[in-house]
Amino acid sequence: MEVKPIRTEEEYEAAMERIDKLWGTPMDDSPESEELEILLALTGAYERKHHQVPSPTPEDMYEYHLDRLGVSPEEIDRIVHGRNDLRKLITEMTGLSADQVDRLGDVPLKVFTG
Q: How far apart are CA 22 and CA 89, in angstroms?
């Protein structure tokens, strides 16, 4: 097992291939287990530096929670008293009260306030 820092995309891809081969290794004191743990840490550090994922927008969060909750856009419109453009309502923060958000179930208010 030769593990070294990941500095290029090619090294990252090679490390990911090795992780795929080691995946499912029991997490014990075996050399394979230790190699997997080290590779996961190294690839994670590389991803944070080179593969940053942008934070979701309030609209992205809205759509995610709608899908997760299994709530249709029509049901949401009814909850907020028939406002037509709910996406605009949420993303521009023009009128959705905390009470209305509470009626959405487990979607926290901070989802809609960024």
A: 48
Residue entry with tokens 């487990």: 106
pTM of the full structure: 0.50
For residue 95, what is the DSSP state? Answer: S
Q: What end-to-end distance do the CA atoms of the chain give, in Å?
A: 44
**Residue 64: closest CA among 100, 107, 113:** 107
- Amino acid at site 76: I
Task: Let me know: does 107 contact 101? Beta carbons within 8 Å.
Answer: yes
Q: Give the pLDDT means over successive 10-residue stretches in the chain (114 positions).
A: 88 95 90 93 94 76 72 66 51 51 55 53
Q: Is 63 exposed, middle or buried (0-12, 13-18, 19+ CB in 10 A)?
A: middle
**Amino acid (1-letter code) at residue 37:** E
